[in-house]
Write a structure and sequence with these properties.
α1 links the parallel β3 and β4. An eight-stranded mixed sheet has the order 1-2-4-3-5-6-7-8, sandwiched between helices. Helices cover about 35% and strands about 20% of the residues. The protein has a single domain, classed as 3-Layer(aba) Sandwich (Rossmann fold). It is of the alpha/beta class and about 220 residues long. The chain has six helices and eight strands; from the N terminus they run βββαβααβαββαβα.
């Protein structure tokens, strides 16, 4: 069991809370981008993060919104679909990682859920030399719009076989992506992958994808 370390991320004009799991000799770092109305405490993302850590991947789960913004969003639901805001926050976190002497040597992958998947893809477009893989879990990848064609990072979309609306959206996104990609349908799963064994399948698929694309050693030039 990997116990997360609490971190405070200084991103632009806000401080964001984060949980970092960093196994010895980690083979990469997976940044989780939670979905609509969720937070870094999402039990599903926490479960997947624990599994990935046991496979030797570092994981970083952070809150896209400040405490005050989360209160506002619970009342108005307006920020969870503010994809430009979520993308800016994620890019800020990626840049924070690049400034960290501890984390900078690691290849970065992004694991996005729901609206967070769109932010992950847009961030991959903004930081194409830094983001090496993207995985979407039941993601609204369609919300990345025309930027889908610009994604270079290998992208895996995982969707439940019973999540018919999102499955259709993911198929459309697959048609718009020009990078290495795959669409995996988990039979019998609904949107939240609450059915027995389905979230474990998500974790296994994500782990395989990240291991395949984040293991390559990386040499980075010193930050200026």
């Amino acid at each position: 069991m990997f116990k997360p370390q609490y971190r405070k991320l200084d991103v632009a004009d806000v401080d964001l809370s984060a949980d970092l799991r960093l196994p010895t000799n980690a083979v990469g770092l997976v940044v989780f981008v939670h979905g609509s109305g969720s937070s870094r405490s999402s039990p599903r993302n926490q479960q997947v993060a624990q599994y990935l850590s046991e496979r030797g991947l570092g994981t970083l789960l952070f809150d896209l919104l400040t405490d005050e913004e989360q209160v506002l969003d619970r009342l108005t639901r307006e920020l969870r679909f503010d994809i430009p805001l979520l993308t800016r926050r994620l890019v800020g976190v990626i840049d924070w990682i690049e400034r960290s002497t501890e984390l900078r040597p690691l290849h970065i992958g992004l694991f996005g859920a729901s609206t967070g998947a769109a932010a992950a893809l847009l961030a991959a477009v903004e930081r194409p030399d830094v983001v090496h893989a993207v995985v979407s879990r039941g993601g609204r990848t369609d919300l990345a719009g025309s930027a889908l064609a610009q994604v270079k990072a290998p992208t895996l979309q995982i969707v439940g076989g019973e999540d018919l609306q999102v499955l259709d959206m993911n198929r459309e996104s697959a048609g718009a992506l020009h990078c290495e990609q795959r669409l995996e349908v988990v039979a019998g799963a609904t949107h939240l992958f609450e059915e027995p064994g389905t979230l474990e399948e998500v974790a296994r698929l994500a782990g395989d994808w990240f291991e395949a694309h984040l293991r390559t050693p990386v040499t980075k030039t010193p930050s200026r």
